[in-house]
Structures are given as C-alpha cells and as structure tokens.
Amino acid sequence: MPAPIRLRELIRTIRTARTQAEEREMIQKECAAIRSSFREEDNTYRCRNVAKLLYMHMLGYPAHFGQLECLKLIASQKFTDKRIGYLGAMLLLDERQDVHLLMTNCIKNDLNHSTQYVQGLALCTLGCMGSSEMCRDLAGEVEKLLKTSNSYLRKKAALCAVHVIRKVPELMEMFLPATKNLLNEKNHGVLHTSVVLLTEMCERSPDMLAHFRKNEKLVPQLVRILKNLIMSGYSPEHDVSGISDPFLQVRILRLLRILGRNDDDSSEAMNDILAQVATNTETSKNVGNAILYETVLTIMDIKSESGLRVLAINILGRFLLNNDKNIRYVALTSLLKTVQTDHNAVQRHRSTIVDCLKDLDVSIKRRAMELSFALVNGNNIRGMMKELLYFLDSCEPEFKADCASGIFLAAEKYAPSKRWHIDTIMRVLTTAGSYVRDDAVPNLIQLITNSVEMHAYTVQRLYKAILGDYSQQPLVQVAAWCIGEYGDLLVSGQCEEEEPIQVTEDEVLDILESVLISNMSTSVTRGYALTAIMKLSTRFTCTVNRIKKVVSIYGSSIDVELQQRAVEYNALFKKYDHMRSALLERMPVMEKVTTNGPTEIVQTNGETEPAPLETKPPPSGPQPTSQANDLLDLLGGNDITPVIPTAPTSKPASAGGELLDLLGDISLTGAPAAAPAPASVPQVAQPPFLLDGLSSQPLFNDITTGIPSITAYSKNGLKIEFTFERSNTNPSVTVITIQASNSTELDMTDFVFQAAVPKTFQLQLLSPSSSVVPAFNTGTITQVIKVLNPQKQQLRMRIKLTYNHKGSAMQDLAEVNNFPPQSWQ
User: Of 100, 342, 425, 558, which residue is 20 to 30 A from 281 by alpha carbon distance?
Assistant: First the structure.
C-alpha cells in the first residue's frame, strides 16, 4: 500500500477546493484511505493518519472512528505518537463515552514516567477530559506531582488538581497539605496555577475558606506577592506593556476578593496594597485598565475603608472618559451596582454619566440611562429631568418605553411641585405617548384631579396640546377626560398660571368630535371623547342640543363599546334627565392606593435611609380602616358582595354609594368587632363566626370533610389549590383553605391573595401564613377564606394575585367556576 499523503499536503489540497461539494469529496476520499490503513493495523503511519483525522474534525467532519487509534498511540513508547494520541483523546473523547475509561491505566503509567514531557501530556489530558471515576483513581498521582520540585510539572499538576476538585469535591482535602508551599515558589507559572487552585478551593468550600483565612494566613502571602509584582523592575520574561505579569496580578486580586468578603481582619490586611495598586498602575494601556477594574471590584466587594471606595469610584469615573467603548460600558455597569451603597461618591460623576446618554453605542446609552435614573433625587430632579427629557426626544424607539417609565416614577417620587409634575408628565405624553405604560393615563388623571388649584391651567395646556394632533393617544385620552371634567373652566378663561385663551363651547365640541372621527383614534380614545361630550351637557349651557345629536348618532355605531355608551347616554337624556346632573357631577378627589410593606422609604438615592415601621399590637377596641381595595368592579356590574372585614369601619354614606367601596375595606388586624355593611347594602344579621378574629383560634369544632380539592390557578410556576370544609352547626358556611406553591427557582415575595364573590354571598379573608412563596415547592402559603352562602347558589369567585418575582412586580386576575357541588349545595 502506498504511503499516505502528509498532513501539510492534505491541508494544501483541501484549500484548493472551490466548492463545498468538492471539499466534501476530498474529505470522504481521504477518510476512506485512513479507514483502510486502520483496518490493516498500519503502525508506521498511524500517527500521521490520526493527525489528518484531527484536522478534519476541526473542519467539522465526523472523526469518531479514530478514537481507538488514539488509545493505541497513547500506549506507544514514542513521544511523537503519545503527543498525537493524547491530543486526539482530548478532542475526540469525553466522559460520556465509555472508551475513555480504557485510558486510565495508560495515564497512570505516564504520570509515573521518567520523562517530564510525557508526564505533562498525561496531566493535560486528565485535566481536560478526566471523568469523576478517572479523577478518583488518579488523584493520588496528581497530588504527588504537586509536591515535586519540578516547576514544569507543578504548574500542570495544579491545574489538573483544579479539574479533580470540580469533578470530585470530596477529594479537596487531599490537596490541602500540598498547597502550603505553593505560594513560596518563585516561578510565575506555578504561582499563577497555585492561585487558581486556591481560588477554586475557597469558592467551593466555606470550611477551606475559613482555614486559609485563619490557619494558613493566606492574605499576607498574597499581599507580599502582589507588592513584589508592583515594585519589581522591568522583567522581559513577564512584562506586558510595561506591567509585570498582569495575569498573575488579576488572579491574586480575585482571590483577595473572595478572602476579604464579609471578613474585617482580611479586609484590613489588604487595604494598603489595594490602594497601592490603584494609584501605581499605568492606565495608558488596556493591561493597566484590566488590573484597575479587578482592583475596583475587590475594593467594592470587601469591607474596605470609605476613602478607598471613593478612590475606586473615581477610577470608574476616569474609565467613563476612555475612548474604548468596552471600558466605558464596564464602568457604567460597575457604577450601577455600587450606586446604592456609595451614592454620594457616584453623584460626583453625574455630568460624565449624563454625557454618555449621547453616545452612539446603544449598550452604553442604555446603561447610562439606567444609571441616570438611579442618581435622581430631590436635589437634582429638575436638572436630571431636563437631560432625560432631551434624551427621550432624540433616543431610538426601543429606549422610549423604559425612559418614559423611569421619568414617571422619578417625577412621582421627587416632584418639587404639582405644576412641575403635571408639566413633566404632559411633556412625556407629547413626546412618547405611544410608548408609555398602560397605567400612565389613570395616574395622570388622578394627579390632575387631586391638584384642585391646577385644574384651569391643566385643561388649557391639554386643550392646546391636542389641537390638530391626535397621534399620541394617551395624551388625547387625558385631554378628553379633563375637557369633559373641567370644560367650564376652559371656556370661562379662569387660568391664572398663564395667559388664558378665549375658547367657545362650539370650539371645544369641535375638538372632541374630531377626535371621535379621527382615523388615529382607538376605540378607547373614542370612548373617552364620547363620555367627555356627555359630561359637557351639564357644564355647558348653549350646546346641549348639539350634544344630544352627537350622542344619538353614535347609538348605531359599529363599535359595540361606543354604541353601548351612546345608548345609555341617550337614555339619560330621555328617561332619567332629572338624574343627569347628579350622575355627571365633577369627580371627587381620588385617594391613591398604596401598599404597606415592611419599610417605609421617605426619600432614596442618597437623601435619607429607609425608616423601619414600628410593629404595634392590634388595638383591643374598634379602629377605622382606610386600606383601599384593589378588586373594585372585579366581577363587573353591581352584584358584588363586600368582603366582611375583621375590624369595623365607619364611613358616611354618599351619593351613588353603591358604586363606591363595592368590596369594602379589608383589614387583617383580627380585632373582634361587629362590622356594619356599606350604606347601600342592607344590614344582614351575620353569624358570630364570620365576625370573630380567629387568626389564632381553631375555626370549627365539628367539621365535615371529604370534599374534593381543586386547582384554582396554575401559571408562571405559581399554583393555587383550594381545599374545602363544611360546618355541621351551620351548613351555609364553607371554609376554603388556599395553598400557594412555587415551582420556579426563585422565591416569590410580597405575595397578596384577594378574592371577590357575587352579592348573594358573604366572604371573609383571614390573614395569610406568610408573604413569601418559597422556590422549588419547598413550602406553601396558607390562607383561610370563609364564605356564607345562605341561598345555596353555585359558588363563583374572582381572584387577584400580586407578588414580586425575579425583580418584577407581577399581577394577575383569574375566575374560579369549577367549585365542587359538595362545597355549596
């Protein structure tokens, strides 16, 4: 058989292929020749054939048929054969294939070989693809080589030990004695691999970390090595761009970060050397910037001195001025992580951060936007909002939603005045109205409603904002609502904040009618406009007939929602005209719904700290509750029953009371008292158990069980199950116990469960067992619901779930209609 072509000739031939098909033909032809040579057990050219096979493997062609040939080369006595054999084993074999176990004995023999280069090949292969079985069998040999005086073998043995520890963590203690003298080595290769080994051990075992901190005194040794690297003169062997062995410096800094985390003594021991590295490292080259970045991360992660942290943030500030985009991005990301802990130090670089908003790179722009919002506080709100509104005008569409949302939140938190707040929100709606969140419209309406002295100014500004431009639908919706509410103020020209404009009733109606017929108006916007026109029938005096005509026209609209509104408004004009003025009277001041958490943050971003709320025992006497219920109109219509609170409420009746507080106030205090129903709901004699604060008492003494449970909700990893019990003493009462479980990998926090039932039922929610749903189904939240069903009607329920998960606020509604008959019959 003729001698096979050399690897160099094969590479030259393959490169001459003009098409993919031609290349595949050459490869297939050569593979056939290699297979024939393997079948003939040709020992002379086996090494050459495996080398060619590895090249084909690198090109993406199958080469698995050469696995056994690699083992034969490893067993050879020639170094050239072993070198190709071990290389082939690292490329073609892994621990998923049983063939690799055949190498164990060969590797063991080679680890004890008299030639250091053969030992090095065996160590490289074991450290690259050794399985847990191989690591257990060969760990003793690796540990012996780790103690040898040969630097070439020690550095390879250290890296191999890292792989062994990753595969079999329980073997970590075997290498502990060998680590004692590793850092005394002068060879930089051994030092580097030793630091890698020590880092792996500290990261994987808290016991090892404590041992190295206390017993081995590892920090002083690392400080000494790092100091020698900084102070040493020029060394051509280790110099990179004028810095001595930056790779070793970075590794040492990472290990110091692990050792100093949450440890005062270790942190204090490394403060001086970190300051020296931060001040003596040259920043003109990327090598120096890499060391400075690791130094900053170490300073921010350990318990360092305040002056050192300021120095670290100033280094990141210098990074923001660098021409390299990657360095600027890294600096912004690091500042974003540290802004909450060192807010004042980051504030000094605010102008530089704002300048990054003008960067052409979208990644830098996004990080700069996020950091700018984190820097906003009550002292700089006006200046920062000016810059961010300018950014909102000019940024790409993908930024507008996040930027608008951030401006809304910042304005709500730090607004210096109501007028400034309203102007800012209107500017956002004018600039990026199509990108704002769904709650922007109701939030702005609520803000305007509560700013009584600003009504005339606001309606005038909004009227001018939508003249001839209906492209920003949220802005048009707010404007329509305000014109409907305060149209009389617009026409009367009572604005004091700016020069009033002269507007007639017909001009106002012209604007609203043009909104109704505009092609840009959505169904929701048309609904706002039609309702506004209807409201103006009680605010205007000369155009009521025109309003009647407009409303009657839309009684035959193809839009069902619009048609229903128009029909109902027509009925108001005809049958219930005497009630029209009362029904369409101006909206009262709205109370903002707030959720009380464990802490109440008055000001953030460097101004004041969160103030923990005082936990007080529930009072023994009655107390009024003011917690607003989020479940208003949850079931739709008027047939919603109030939740029976466990503490009394007292509220004056008001006009249209049946539309207010449909579910009443929910109180979780558990104080026993009698709770009167809302004004529009007739008083019902309630059984005592519905009014008792039974948070710590057994619910019933005689309970009928055996009712099948149901899954009421299962979505996004959250599962809600209902189990049922019936009282023998009062069969009209059903006790439902909910169990909430979480199958995701992260906890769900601030979990709140709420429920509503039709008006023929009475419902009471007791306090939940917790507000955190543990991950991986490791625990559940339980909560008891008591339902009074005197008419034995089929039970149906709407539920609302609110929680935080993966840093986002989640909210969902669901309807439960599959209650078992035994639970209500």
Answer: 342
State the Cα–Cα distance between residues 455 and 485, nearest whole angstrom: 9
Output the CA–CA distances (angstroms, integers) from residue 422 to 415, 450, 523, in the order listed. Answer: 9, 11, 25
Buried b (16+ CB within 10 A) or exposed e, 746-778: ebbeebebbbbbbeebbbbbbbbeeeebebeee
Interatomic CA distance for residues 446 and 525, integer angstroms: 17
According to DSSP, residue 244 is labeled E
Pick the more confident residue, 691 or 316. Answer: 316
Angle at 206 between CA 204 and CA 211, to 5 degrees: 110
Burial group, residue 701, by CB count within 10 angstroms (0-12, 13-18, 19+): exposed
Looking up tokens 């690392």 gives 222
Q: Is 245 left (phi over 0), alpha (psi -120 to 50) or beta?
A: left
Give 12's Cβ-side CA count (13 Å radius). 5
Q: Is the C-alpha dihedral spanning 426, 427, 430, 433 positive or negative?
A: negative
Q: Which of 112, 142, 147 minimizes the C-alpha distance to 126? A: 142
Three-class secondary structure assignment of 716-780: CCEEEEEEEEEECCCCCEEEEEEEEEECCCCCEEEEEEEEECECCCEEEECCCCCCCECHHHCCC
What percentage of residues in the chain have a pLDDT greater than 70? 86
Quick one: 582 exposed, middle or buried, by C-beta within 10 A (0-12, 13-18, 19+)?
exposed
Q: Supply the pLDDT for residue 662.
A: 34
Q: Is the pLDDT of residue 657 over 50?
A: no
Cβ contact 464:502 at 8 Å: no
Q: Please answer whether residues 442 and 482 qualify as being in contact, where contact means their C-beta atoms are separated by less than 8 angstroms.
A: no
Backbone angles phi, psi at 738, to 5 degrees: -95, 145
* Number of Cβ atoms within 10 Å of the Cβ of 665: 20
Q: Which long-range contacts (CB under 8 A, 24 or more apart) does 354-361 make?
A: 354/384, 354/387, 356/320, 356/328, 356/332, 357/387, 357/388, 357/391, 359/325, 359/328, 361/325, 361/328, 361/329
Residue type for position 66: G
CB atoms within 10 A of CB 674: 9
pLDDT digits (tens, 9 = 90+) for 704-763: 457 889 999 999 899 999 998 887 778 888 889 999 999 998 889 999 999 999 888 888
The SS3 assignment for 815 reads strand
The 3-state DSSP class for residue 535 equals helix
**Under DSSP, is residue 18 helix (H, G, I), strand (E, B) or coil?**
coil
Helices (H), 215-285: 218-231, 246-260, 264-280
Query: Per DSSP, what are the bridge partners of residue 764?
Result: 786
Closest CA to 225 of 171, 270, 263: 270
Residue 768 CA to residue 814 CA, distance in Å, equals: 19
Higher per-residue confidence, 433 vs 793: 793
CA 101, chain centre distance (Å): 44
Task: Please state, in angstroms and as integers, the Cα–Cα distance from residue 645 to each residue in 400, 442, 559, 665, 676, following that order.
Answer: 43, 28, 41, 7, 9
Looking up tokens 């990141």 gives 316
How many angstroms separate the CA atoms of 120 and 66, rounded? 23
Token pair listed for 436 = 């704002």
Q: Which residues contact 148 (CB under 8 A, 6 or more apart)?
A: 154, 157
Q: Is 729 exposed, middle or buried (0-12, 13-18, 19+ CB in 10 A)?
A: exposed
Chain centre to alpha carbon of residue 259? 29
Single pTM value for the model:
0.63
- CA-wise closest residue to 529 among 544, 554, 512, 514: 512
DSSP 640: B
Between residues 656 and 538, the one the model is more confident about: 538
Q: How far apart are the first and last CA of the chain?
A: 92
Phi-psi region of 722 (alpha: psi -120 to 50; beta: other; left: phi over 0): beta
**Helix ranges, 302-349 (H):** 306-319, 325-338, 343-347
Nearest to 712 by CA among 794, 824, 822, 814: 814
DSSP bridge pairs for 243 = 240
